[in-house]
Amino acid sequence: MADTTAQANIGVVGLAVMGSNLARNLASREGNTVAVYNRSHEKTDALVAAHPEAGFVPAATVEEFAASLSRPRAAIIMVKAGAPTDAVIEQLTQAFEPGDIIVDGGNALFTDTIRREAAVRATGINFVGAGISGGEEGALNGPSIMPGGSAEAWETLGPILTSIAAVAEGEPCVTHVGTDGAGHFVKMIHNGIEYADMQLIAEAYDLIRRGTGKSPVEIADIFAEWNTGELESYLIEITAEVLRQVDAATGQPLVDVIVDQAGAKGTGAWTVQTALELGIPVSGIAEAVFARSLSSKPAQRAAAADLPGPAEAWTVDDPDGFIEDVRQALYASKIIAYSQGFDEIVAGAEQYGWDIDKGEIAKIWRGGCIIRAQFLNRITEAYAEDPSLVALLTAPYFRDALTGAEAAWRRVVIAAVQGGIPAPAFASSLAYYDGLRADRLPAALIQGQRDFFGAHTYRRIDREGTFHTLWSGDRTEVSAVDTH
C-alpha cells in the first residue's frame, strides 16, 4: 500500500518513457514532491526502485493516487492519445474534487481537448491540455511547455511547470497559451513547422549531395558550419551528427543504410487539415507531410522507377557557389514555413476565441523543443514591434532576408527542376512567396469558370456588388446581374 500520509504537490499518471522522465524531472526540482501511478503497477514499482533519490509517492490505485495529492490536486496524464486518455480522465474525474486539475500532456488533437475541457469543467474540475515538446530528453532535462486551460489552473500549475521547463536566455520556455484547446493547438502548429523544417533540410542535403558529389561526412561539415550562423538550430546540429554516423555492420554512412521511408505520427497531417478548415495556405508544411507519404509508397515508387527524367546526369559547375545558394534557399523557405505556421495560429485564435501572444510562443520555442533556433528571437522581435503584423514575412528583418536570398532561392529551384531532383518544400515555398506578392492572380479566371458552371457569382474590380453572367454558347448574350 502507498503511504497516503505523504502529500505530493503534483502527480504523473502513465509511466512509459515520457511519463517516467517527466516525473523524474519534476522530482529533481526544489519544492516538488511527485506522486506516481500506472495502470500496470509493475512500472510504478520499477520507477520507484530505480530512482530512490526522487522520493516518489507511489500509488497502486487511482484512489490512493488522489489521496496522496495536496489540494488543489494536480495530475499530469502521460498516456496514449485517444481512448486511453479518455479512460484515465474518467477515472480521475471520479476521484478528484471541484478545483482540482487534470493535465493532458500527450499529443492530443486540440478539438478533442476542447471537448474534454468542456466535459470536465462541468464537474467543477479544471482540465488543461498541455503541449510538451522535446521528446524523451526534453521531458527529463527541460521541455518547452504549451499549457492551455483556465487562469485558475495556471495559478497552481504555473510555478510547477516553470520549475521543469527549459530555459533560454534566462527565460523559462513555458507560458499560459490560452483557454481550453489553445495549448494543444499551438503544439500541433509547432509539429507542423517541424515537418517543414526537416523536409527542407533533407532537400538541402539531397541537392548538395547529388549536385556536388560530396560525401555525407563532407556535407556534415557544411551543416556544422551553417549552425554557426543564421541557421543555428537544434535540427541543423543533429543533421550534422546523423550525416557523420557510420554504420558499424557495413562501414557505410548510416544515412545510406536507413530505408528512405519517413514515418509520421499525425500532428503534421492535423496541422494541414486544420489549415484547410481555417482557409490558411500552409503549402510548405503540406508538401513536407506529402513528401513523407510519398516516401512510404514503395510499390508505387518501384513501378515509376523507369519513368523518363532528364537525359543527362546533373552536376553543378560551381560547387561552393551552389552550396551557398542552397543555404540561402533553406533560410528563405524556413521563413515561409514559420510565417505560414503563425498565420494558422492567428486564424485559430480568431476562430476559437483564444488570446495568444505570438511573441511569447516564439520565445518558449527557443529551448527544449525540436524547432529551437536562434531564428526565433527574430520572430519575437517582429511581433513586439508590430503585434498586429499581417504576415511574419513582411516584417522588416524577414523582408530583408527574403530580398537577399531571392535570387539564390530561384536558382536552386531551377537547378532541382533541371536535374529531376524532387524539392517540393523549396519549390512550394517559392511559389507561395510569388503568389503572395503577385499584383494579380489567375483566380479571376477560376471565378469566371465557377460562375459559368455553377452560377457561383463573382465581384468586379470597377464597382461594388456581387455579379452573375448569363453565359451563352455563342457568347453574344451576356448580362450581369447584381445579386444584392
How would you describe what is shown here?
The protein is α/β, with parallel strands linked by helices. 54% of the residues lie in helices and 9% in strands. It has a seven-stranded mixed beta sheet with strand order 3-2-1-4-5-6-7, with helices on both faces. The model has no long low-confidence stretch (mean pLDDT 94).
Number of helices: 20
End-to-end distance: 74 Å
Share of helix, binned: 40-55%
Structural class: alpha/beta
Tell me what portion of residues adopts beta-strand conformation: 5-15%
Strand order of the largest sheet: 3-2-1-4-5-6-7
Layout of helices and strands:
Blueprint: E1 10-13, H1 17-27, E2 34-37, H2 41-50, E3 57-58, H3 62-67, E4 74-77, H4 83-95, E5 101-104, H5 110-121, E6 126-133, H6 135-141, E7 144-147, H7 151-164, E8 167-168, E9 171-172, H8 182-212, H9 216-226, H10 234-244, H11 254-257, H12 267-278, H13 283-295, H14 298-303, H15 319-352, H16 358-364, H17 375-385, H18 396-419, H19 424-437, H20 443-454, E10 458-459, E11 466-469, E12 480-482
Parallel strand pairs: 1-2, 1-4, 2-3, 4-5, 5-6
Antiparallel strand pairs: 6-7, 8-9, 10-11, 11-12
Helix pairs in contact: 1-6, 8-12, 8-13, 8-15, 9-10, 12-13, 13-19, 15-18, 15-19, 16-17
